[in-house]
Each structure stands twice: as C-alpha cells, then as structure tokens.
Amino acid sequence: MSAETVLSTRHDAWAELDVTTAATLDVETVLARLEISSAGLSEAQARERLQAVGPNAIRTHRTRRLAVLARQLRSPLLILLALTAIASYFLGEPTDALIIGAILTASVGLGFFNEYRAEKSAQALHSQIRHTCVVRRDGLPRPVNVTDVVPGDIVELGLGQVVPADLRLVSAVGLECEESVLTGESMPVAKSIAPVRPGAPLAELSSCALMGSVVHAGSGTAVAVATGGRAEFGKIALGLGQRHPDTEFQVGLSRFSMLLVRVAAVLTVTIFVINLLLHRPVIDALLFSLAIAVGISPQLLPAVVSTSLAAGTRRLAQRKVLVKRLVCIEDLGDIEVLFTDKTGTLTEGSISLVRSLGPDGTPADEPLKLGLLCNEAVVAAGRVAGGNPLDVALWQAPAAAALGAALTPYRRLAVLPFDHERRIVSVVVEHEGRRTLITKGAPEAVLSRCVGVPPEMTATLAAEFAAGNRVVAVADRPAPESLQITFADECDLVLRGLLVFLDPPKASASHALERLAGLGITVKVLTGDNPAVAARLCADLGLPGGRVATGQDVAAADDDGLAALIDRSTVFARVTPEQKARIVRVQRGGGLDVAFLGDGVNDALALHAADVGVSVETATDVAKDAADVLLLEKDLNVLADGVMEGRRIFANTMKYVLMGTSSNFGNMFSAAGAALVLGFLPMLPSQILLNNLLYDASQLAIPTDNVDREQVARPARWSMKLIQRFMLFFGPLSSLFDFATFAVMLGIFHAGPPLFRTGWFVESLATQTLVIFAIRTRRSPFFRSHPSLPLVATTLGVVLIGVALPATPVARILGFVPLPGPYFLALALMVVFYLGLIEVGKQWFYRALPAVPAGRERSAGHRTHRRAGPFTTVHRIRRRSRASDPGHG
C-alpha cells in the first residue's frame, strides 16, 4: 500500500466527523472517532493532519494579478474609449486608434503597477498578524498558531478567547460562549459536555464551541472536530464571500470622484452638442468629448491613494504599527480623543510580585500559597503556558518555587472562574481529607465577602494604593459538601492577606503623552484598577489633572451627565467592560473621533465601539480581532507615529485632489470655451489623453512628498464644500491663462490647427503640472515649503518631455509641429504670472475659510460600525457597517 493510500485512509477515518454529528455523541465516542486520547495528538500526528487538511484558515490574503488588472478596467469611460478607438480604426482612422490604445494601455499599466504594489504590501502586512491558542500536544499544554490547529487537537478554552475551530467539549466549568457572529443571538449560550438531540440547530449545540464565537465566561477543554472551511463559520464565510464596508476615507474618495464624474458628464454632453451644431464629424466630436471626460475624471486617483497607503504601510511597519486594512491608516490621523488602558501602555507591563502580606499587614507566605492554589494560569511541568498577567506573575515569583513542594498534596476539585462583574475567582481544594474554598480578587470585592476584617487592613490598603501598587486580596473558608460551588458560596470568608504587585511607569510614557498633546489628542485612562493607583500613575507621568471618576459615577449618570463627566475627568477607574464601551460611545456622540487602546478581554466592547480600535500583538485574541490597528510594541510613541502617518497620507491625497479640481477642471472648461469660438478642435483626442497621462504620471510622486508641520498638527477630513469652492475658484484662474495662450497663438503667431494644438498642449501641461508647487502648501510664497526630490524630478521631467515632444520624430504621428522660439519666452512669462496669480488667490482663498481646519465637517454619531469574525481568517465577516455622515463628503 502506498504512502498516499495510507494518508487517504487515515484522513477518511478522522476527518469525516462534523460538529453537528459530534454534538450528539458522548465524549469517549468522539475521541475514538478522531483516533486520539485525552492526552491529545503528538507533534508528528499534528504535522501529518495539517498536511492532509491544510491550514486552519478560511482564506488567505493573496495578491492576484488578474484581479488587480480587472479593477483597472472597470471604468466605464475607459471601456467606452476603448470601444470608440476600435470603431475609429475600422472607420479609417487607424493612427488615432493606435495612439489612443497606447495611451490607454499606459494609463491602465500605471494603475495596475501601483495597486499591485499596494496589494503586495497588504499581503506582507497580514503575514505578520498572528493568533495563538493553547493545545495539548504530546500530553503537555503548549501555545500554537491557530492556523496550525487540526482535527483531534485538545484545546484549552479561557475567558475572552476566540474559539479557533469547531470544538466538541470534553470538560466545562461555568462555560458560556457568545455566538452572535453565527446565530445572531446576543445572549451568551451556556455550555456543557452532555450530548444534544440529533438534528439540533447551531444555536442549540450546547455541547460544542463553534469557530468565531467568544468565551464569555468560565473555562473548559475541547477537541477540535472541524477546521478552516469545514467549520460552520468557514462554510458561511466562503458562501457569502467578502466585502469590507467602506471607511470614511473611502466614502470621501468616492464622493469626490462622483463630483468630477458629474462635471465631466455635463461638459462632455455640452461639448459634443456644440461640435455637432458646428457640423464637425461625429466620430471626431465623440472622441474629443470622451477625451474631455477622461481628462477631468480622476483616472489615477486610486493609484495615487494606493501608492500613498502602501508607502505609509511600509513606514508604519518599520515603526512597529500594523494596520489590518490599508485604508484604516488615514483613520488614525482623525483621532482627537484617545482612551487607553493603563497596564503596558502607561506602565512597563512587566508585573511582578513584590510582597505577600498577612491580615495584619506584616509579611507572610500563606497568601502567596493560597494565591497559587486559587490560580487560573495554565501550568505544565512547572512552566506557565498561559493565563492572566497577575496569575502568571505569581508563578514567576522567586518565592513560588520554594512553595512548589507544599502545593503538591493539594487537589483541586472545583473552580468558579473569574469574571469582570464579580472580579474574583474561587476554587475548592482538598488536603488531607479537608476541603477548603479559596477566593482571590479585587480587594473591595473580597473584603465585602469577609467577616472579621482586621481594622489595620484599611490603612494597609490605602498605603499600597497611594504607592501606586496593584493589590489582590486572598480569603478562604471551609468548603460546602457539594462539589458544585455557586456564587452564593462566596460569603462568610476569612481574610488571609494581600498580594502586592508592582508595574512601574513606562519610561517613554511621559514623552509620548506630550507628543499626543502636541497633535491635539486628549488622552484619558479607562482602567479596572483602583482609583488611587490610577491617579498616582497619571500624576507621576504628568497627565493633565482632572477628576478621577469611578464605575459608580458612570452608572449613576445618564448620557448627558456622562458627557459632562467625561469632559472634566482624566481617569475612569473600577469601570466594567460595558461602562468602558458606553464612555467611548458617549464621547463619539459629542462629535469627536475616538480611539481606544486596549489588549484585554474586558477591552473588546470598547474596541468595537471606538472609531479606531487599537490593540497590541500580545493582546488576547478577542481584543486583536476587535481592533483595526495592532501595535507590535505597546507604546504610545508608536501610536503617535501612526497618527502622524495617517495625517501625512491624507494631506498628500488632498494635494492630488485639489490639483485635479484646479487643473483638470480649468483645462476642460477652456476646451469647452474654445469649441465655441474656433473652427477646429482645439486639441485632438489623442493629445488630450496624452496630456492627461503625462500629468498624472508626474503626480504619482506625490505620496513621497514632504508635509508641512502645520498640516499634520490637527486632524482634517473630507469636505466637499471645500473641494467645490477650490474647483470653482482656481479652475477659472487656470482657464484665464489658457485663453491667454489662445490669444497669443492666434493673434501673434497666427497659428493654424496643428500649431495651435501644439502650443496649447505644451502650455497646458506646463501650467497644470508646475502648479503643484503652489497647491501643495498653504505657505506663501510657496518656496518656503520644500517638496520632496522625487516630486521635483517627476514634475520637471514631465514638463521637459512636453516641451521636447514637438521636436521629436513622433511629433507628426501625434499631430504636433515645431514651436517658434519666441513662443517659449511667452510660455515662461505665462507660467511665472500664473504661479504668481495662484499665490495671490491662495492667500485670499484660505483667509476666507472658517477658522476650523480645512475639511473639518462633523456631526454627532457620524459613523456606525463594525466588526466581527474569528482570527482564523484575514478577511472577516462584519456584522455592522461603517457609514460616513453626509456632511463629510
């Protein structure tokens, strides 16, 4: 029997089981069908199964050349021009047809090249995003990449984890999963190991945990039954396909494009009708009108944006920022308020146990011993494989090793997992026939369940909090007879002491806060920690003072009251996950762009609620899945770099947009005017297209351009009012010099059609290209702002090409003739006067704008979004769409 046959046979034996069948079987039968024991797979078995079934991913982000090319060919104008070129070829105009075809090919090629590079950047970006889970291999728990999970893997489930595959539960303690991504039900579903009835729908598969759902409470272990596209979520995702909702940036681009398309439609029809009324050939009139439409349409805007975003992605990756979608980079630049957690952002994130104190506040080992027994960290062979930071810190404490032998006789019988409402965890342990209930958690929560708390404990706690330390209280009591403990059993406890942890302020945090303040971003802290600890940290870092509000204050306030509380508060302490999300929503409702930075289970709701959700590579799965942006280093300086890059990209995109409105509209307006007074076409269709192609090629260097400091000092957004005003103001200024060129060519040089077209081609290309140096900055005179070398090189290079073309061998093919020497003197004078007039107009235009930054249009509730789906797929299904307020353009 061949190796292929053996692999196929083994594959059939364990891979045909699906979750709906597994849910109806008992655990032993499922394990037998999967050919494994409770010890899990060996590494060799896991590798073999991975080779057989493939990665545990629904789809990967692969760049496909044909798909990118197809997007370049979707423009109706390009398609219509291509068809018209074919028609002109068969109607006796082969030269024009070939020229138009060559220009269209070059235009599509430029767009393809730049978008393909952007897609490759996105592919490289996604390859860096990783999610892990803890599985049992060779009998030991170990973290693995979720894409390596295979049928038969025993998976450890904990609070906040995104379920990596379709799993059949082996054990469960208070386990609840939130499954709305699959079933639409918002309430968590309680889980158990008992089989369900055959034919039960997904919503009733209580013996299974489904890919993409989130562990809401409790813990458990489960065996993977189906992975990747064979999981229920995978089937749905592959069936629906994938389309991300547009961001505000994309909506703005679309609306700008539609504005120019509407203008192009009016001008095209008008010019076509005028040429017909003047009895010009229908084909010439049609080609000329279509060329006008292409000339004003933002043909290479997607390429410019893609180039900007791709370059921005590479720069951000170098600065340790990963953006899940390229278009979300610009959203970073909009941030006005940043809510952040405390641990790892303002602190070092290296939590360590500094002391274990008895009830009287003196050093004692018993609290540490009880803390190690009442612990949810995953420990194997003395090594910590996972768990929350405080539990991990307990096991990593030097004193824990000395207590290892003392813990061996204890046997854990039951556990009541931690949740963010109780803020405690309880276990039942047995030692020498005696059962004890041990409870550990936030001091307020534990002490409220204790009896006979020593009076000196209040002073001890106050001193630790004032020092900025994190404190966990430990208590116990005799356990109830039943092994099924409930929340009601967490009462009448005896306080055994405190565990004190240190997480020092981050050295770079103070400078980062100054940078963010300089960018106009207000930073506020949302934390589940004690108010005194949070206040002390903020004071040490120099965060602007304000009220320290608590979860009780938030609960007591209605939305209007909470909005006022947010305005006067810097720190919100002891807040629940729901309260964090509510604070973010209320702040957004005030018309501000809000970011939230968090990495824990309790941060997921707030990450969903924010305009920009930011997490870190080491975050919990549910936090990473909810975030738009991942930081490879949890540092506010890294986030500040991302904000700067987002604003830089938007500023450079606006340069192209404003160029398009001033130059293209002016040229097409001039063409419409010339069509009324001339007895011939002012420029041939192929010449218009060539002019547009050369102009756009020069603008492809805009993404490399330098940005003035004042342009990135504050957020700026799309404003169609600003763009329309700019177009209507600067477009006619451009046309004035086109009409001056007409006068020079007809009145001084007595030009016929070929010379006239050549002169206007050169003047039009020179003025609309060189004006970038004035448009790119608000500074006056414009040479006080320094453009990038690539922009200078491409701009001047295109102007030289335009000037040289009439003297080249291809001039006759393009319909050009040599220009007389005096024309170039006139051209130089017109360019100088044109740039001077633009400078004067620019000063008047910007002085007349409102005092708020350009593009600053906003209303409350401007966006709704957003996201859902498992980490196993790069492209995720999203439940909610993001919409932009109509005022944004």
Describe this structure in words.
The structure is a single chain. With 889 residues, this protein is α+β, with helices and mostly antiparallel strands. It folds into four domains: 3-60 and 129-240, Calcium-transporting ATPase, cytoplasmic transduction domain A (Distorted Sandwich); 65-123 and 246-316 and 642-847, Calcium-transporting ATPase, transmembrane domain, CATH 1.20.1110.10; 321-347 and 506-634, Rossmann fold, CATH 3.40.50.1000; 352-502, Calcium-transporting ATPase, cytoplasmic domain N (3-Layer(aba) Sandwich). Helices cover 49% and strands 15% of the residues. It is built from 33 helices and 23 strands. The protein has an eight-stranded mixed sheet with strand order 8-23-22-21-9-18-20-19, sandwiched between helices. The relative contact order is 0.10. Mean pLDDT is 80; it is low at 1-11, 240-244 and 851-889.
Structure keywords:
889 residues; alpha+beta; Calcium-transporting ATPase, transmembrane domain; 7-stranded antiparallel beta sheet; 33 helices; 15% strand; disordered N terminus; ATP binding; ATPase_P-typ_TM_dom_sf; EC 7.2.2.14; ATP hydrolysis activity
